[in-house]
Amino acid sequence: MTDEIPARSTITTQEPAIADEERERERTFRAAPKLNKSPLHGLWALTNRDLVKWYKNPIQLFISLIQPVVWLGLFGKAFNFPIPTSVLGTAGGFFSYLSAGMLAFIILFTAAFAGMSVVWDRRFGFMNKALSTPVGRGAIVTSKVLQSVVRSLIQAAIVLGIAVAFGMDTSNFSVLTIAGSFVILFMMAFGLSSLFVMLALRSADWQTQMAMINLLNLPLLFASNAMLPVATMPGWLQNVVKVNPVSYANDGVRQMLLGSTATIAPLWVDFGVLALFAGLLSVLGIVLSWRFLTK
Hints:
This protein is mainly alpha-helical. 76% of the residues lie in helices and 0% in strands.
């Protein structure tokens, strides 16, 4: 009996310490995780969310490449018009001229659907959840633009590879010219994606958004030098081409990749116009998001 008394007292003194340790462990377990309120963290999380949905659905990527490949394989090869080199400005023929235009083509049509992501997020309730987080409205808009830009550039790189395989002239290719071309395409994609996201800020109807895409896409494409040289167009259309930002993207890419001499502006003007276009529309989209992007 005398041996049991110290053991009991030891257990009695240890019980409060064990209880305190259990309570502390429970408080730690139940404590809410610390929120990372960095704008870059929220921007990356939202951008990555849209990109994951895209690259986990390779059929979507495949379908998006069919149209430019058809243009290259059928229109570019079957209708290889005997346009003089002095008009084209390149020695690679009409196919090489069209191939450079197809890069802007894929950028334009991919950027046009950047706004559809906003529409679907609003329709299925994710936009309300995103607006309830500490992430700023500007970061939400910029994430939609960035995911569209990344998709556009990846698809443009694939189209360029297909065009080279089909016979595009590569005599002027170098690391510098390819990099410069993709800087041009980046600015074009950023500006156009900002435009279409901005138009979708208050929209919850996908039919309205599709109508706006069709309203803008074809005029931007055909009122540019993507398909045909400016010299072959009527005078009034040439004036429209020269105020179309897509034309400056095509012009810059052809100067970089093909060494084109039939240009609408010097290369530095192409870069300047596209930088102004991308910067202006991105800032405008962020400013409008503060007012119109609501639950």
